[in-house]
Amino acid sequence: MAQGIIVYVTRTGNCRKLAELAAKETGFPVHEVQDLVNRKGLWGWLKAGFQASTGTASPIKEAELNLAEPDTIILVYPVWASSVCPPIRTWLRKHTKEIQNKKIGLITSNLGSPGERVRASFEREFYPLKAFTVIQERETETERLQKVRIFIENLLKN
What we know:
By secondary structure, the chain is of the alpha/beta class. It is about 40% helix and about 20% strand. The protein has helices spanning about 15-25, 40-55, 85-95, 95-100, 115-125, 140-155, and strands spanning about 5-10, 30, 35, 60, 70-80, 105-110, 130-135. A 5-stranded parallel sheet has the order 2-1-5-6-7, covered by helices on one side. A two-stranded antiparallel ribbon has the order 3-4. Strand 1 (about 5-10), helix 1 (about 15-25) and strand 2 form a beta-alpha-beta unit. Helix 1 (about 15-25) packs across helix 6. The N and C termini lie close together (about 10 Å).
C-alpha cells in the first residue's frame, strides 16, 4: 500500500475541499501551504496570474513536514494563468531534493480552461506527473468524486 501526502494551496476554499476529498479516498494526510501574499480582489487576482505566468515564487507558511516516508505526493492547487501557482512553486523549490524520486500527481481546479497547458507548464518546470486531472468548479460533487477516483487509480497503479 502506498504511503502518501496531499499538499494543497487554496485561495477560495475550493482546493481545500478537493484535497479533503482525495484524503477520504486515499487515507493520506493533508498538508496546507498557506500563501502569504494577499490575493483578495481584482488586484490580488491580477497579481496571482502575473506571478504564475512569470515563474515567480511567493512567501509561504507551512507546518513542519517529514517527506522521507511518503512515496506518493498529491498536489492540489488552483489554475492561475495556466501555470504553477506561486505558493506551490515555492514549496516545490524548497522540497526538490526530498521529493524528486516520488510519484507525483496533480489535481487542479479552474473555471473551465483545458488542462494540457497546466500539465505541460508543471512538467517543464519540475517533474513528470504520474497522474493529472482538472476539476472545474462548476462540476457536481458526483463528477468531482468520479474524477478524483480515476486520478487516484492512475496514480497508484504500478
